[in-house]
Amino acid sequence: MKTLKKFSKIILLSVLALFFMMGSSQATLLNIDVRFPVILSDHTGGYTYNATDGKFHSEAIAETITFQDGSKISIADASGATPGGTYEVNFYLDSNGSLIGGDPNGYDLQIWGNIDLDGDGSLDGYQLLVGGEIDGFGYQYYGLPYYNAVFDFSFEFVAGSMTDYYANTDFRGGDYMASGETIDFNGDWGQSHSGGDVVHRTSPVPEPGTILLLGLGLVGLLGIKRRGFIK
Predict the structure, then answer these.
(1) Which residue of 39, 110, 187, 223 has the lowest C-beta tally within 10 Å?
(2) Pick from 45, 28, 27, 54: which is nearest to 192 by CA?
(3) Is the separation of the CB atoms in 161 and 127 below 8 Å?
(4) Cβ contacts of residue 157 below 8 Å, gap of 6+?
(5) What are the DSSP calls for 101-165, one per residue?
(6) How many domains does the chain contain in total?
(7) Can you tell me whether residue 7 is helix, strand or coil?
(8) What distance in Å separates the CA atoms of residue 44 and residue 58, rounded to the nearest whole number?
(9) Short-list 218, 225, 187, CA closest to 95
(10) Strand, helix or coil at 204?
């Protein structure tokens, strides 16, 4: 009986730890499970991190959307010129690279563009395609002989005309970004850094299966105990 109680506590603490870890930074990537459609900003962006206020900011040109069947559409600007979509992300990190929170003035992730989403042969008008609130951040940096880094983050999908494509993933999304040039980042989030030639890939991602399975297992174990099967 004591062993089972101890085991139950261990499982409970493990589940709680996983939930608290969500939204925290790690010195490793989140390894997001990318699904379709994928919105690509190909080597068109840049990013900055301001160590004074902790703001991480990136802008890029949203170029194309690739769907699961391999079809691809271009993202235009308000006049219909391509590529012309806009990508912007803003959130805040502490001096350890841990996620503090998102942009208090708007969506943490915004992708705007003019596309033919309904397939009727005409552009639908310049609009918000994806609006999201960040809930997880990861990174991996590479040292000498030159510095570069890869960043990724997960977000809750909360707005945008592409809502239907995120619905079967519990409205979750993820973004993978990498700088294609040498940057002044050495893994120290206490210093400001920036980079250019940035690639963004934004897509729906599934809910983390490990947390869900552990949670269900805990509920089942407590339910069995409550019914008196564990004595």
Answers:
(1) 223
(2) 54
(3) yes
(4) 130, 131, 132, 163, 166, 171, 172, 173, 204
(5) EE-TTS-SEEEEEB---S-SSS---SEEEEEEEEEEEEEEEE-TTS-EEEEEEEEEEEESTTGGG
(6) 1
(7) helix
(8) 11
(9) 187
(10) strand
- Residue 9 belongs to a domain: no
Residue 103 lies in a domain: yes
Query: Domain range holding 77?
Result: 17-226
Residue 101 CA from chain centroid, whole number: 13
DSSP annotation of 187 reads S
Question: What is the Cα–Cα distance from 178 to 84, expressed in whole angstroms?
Answer: 20
Residue 7 in any domain: the answer is: no
Q: Note whether residue 4 is domain-resident.
A: no
Query: Could you give the CA distance from residue 184 to residue 149 in angstroms, rounded to a whole number?
Result: 10
Q: Which two tokens stand for residue 71?
A: 């079809």
Which tens digits make up the pLDDT trace of 52-110?
999 999 999 999 999 999 999 999 999 999 999 999 999 999 999 999 999 999 999 99
Q: What is the largest CA-CA distance in the chain?
A: 71
Residue tagged 């590529």 (tokens): 83
Global confidence as pTM = 0.79
Q: Please list, in sequence order, all residues whose beta carbon lies within 8 angstroms of the beta carbon of residue 105, skipping any fewer than 6 positions away.
A: none
List the structure tokens of 123.
């552009």
Nearest partner of 44 among 201, 196, 152, judged by Cα? 196
Percentage, residues of the chain above pLDDT 90: 67
